[in-house]
Amino acid sequence: MNRSLARLLSVVFHPLLLPTYLFAFILYFLPVASISLPLQSRWIVLSMIFFTTFIIPGLGAFALFRTGFIDSYEMDRREQRSKPLLFTGICYSVTAYLFHREPVFDHLFYFVMGIIAASVLLAWIVSFYWKISAHGIGLGGVLGILLALHKVLPEAGLLTPILATIIVSGAVLSARLALHAHTPAQVYTGFVAGLLLVLTAAGIAL
């Protein structure tokens, strides 16, 4: 794969952007009646998710870079990944807690955000021993959530998005390999771990 295309795919489908993409899908693609939140106010929730799952973690990574805790935003070195992942996991956990605390949000919001937070914390724990692919975990988690939603809402017509996610996942994981950011084992283990984490949690909670 061309390195420019590989870098583009890695940026467009960066793990910090996946929660926003996923909730945009949930808020605007699923049948309107399946979400109790009024349609006209959903953009406010999506903006909040973008702020807490992308802007704040991004600013945290910038602060760590400026203070010398990391020497690259790509965090190629395994030992530099723990602090950004922990900070991101805390941001995601706080977002999940807010969804749980406020009754205006559907249980689905808390479940999805909680699973995303758990996947980041899993990557954080693994980062002490191994450089697992955060892209892989994120994309595997997205696929798992779509499969869980398809089981709960078979009328939502999710087969096409599921197929698209599989194709995108293959392209992004190939991009990570083309950039030599990870080994095949790190990429595929991350994807399978994210997928199994979601399917296990869905089997228990849904």
Description of the structure:
- The chain is mainly α and 206 residues long.
- It has one domain.
- It is 71% helix and 0% strand.
- Helix 1 packs across helix 7, helix 4 packs antiparallel against helix 5 and helix 6 packs parallel to helix 8.
- The model has no long low-confidence stretch (mean pLDDT 89).
Topology:
Blueprint: H1 3-12, H2 18-28, H3 42-66, H4 82-101, H5 107-126, H6 134-152, H7 159-178, H8 184-205
Helix pairs in contact: 1-7, 2-3, 3-4, 4-5, 5-6, 5-8, 6-7, 6-8
Structure, briefly:
The protein has 206 residues and is mainly α.
Strand pairing plus helix content: what structural class?
A: mainly alpha
Low-pLDDT runs = none
Strand content: under 5%
Number of domains: 1
Care to count the β-strands? 0
Biggest sheet descriptor: none
Helix percentage range: over 70%
Distance between the termini: 39 Å
Computed CA radius of gyration, to the nearest angstrom? 17 Å
Count of DSSP H/I helices: 8
Shape: globular
Order of helical and strand elements: HHHHHHHH
The average pLDDT is 89
Features:
about 210 residues, mainly alpha
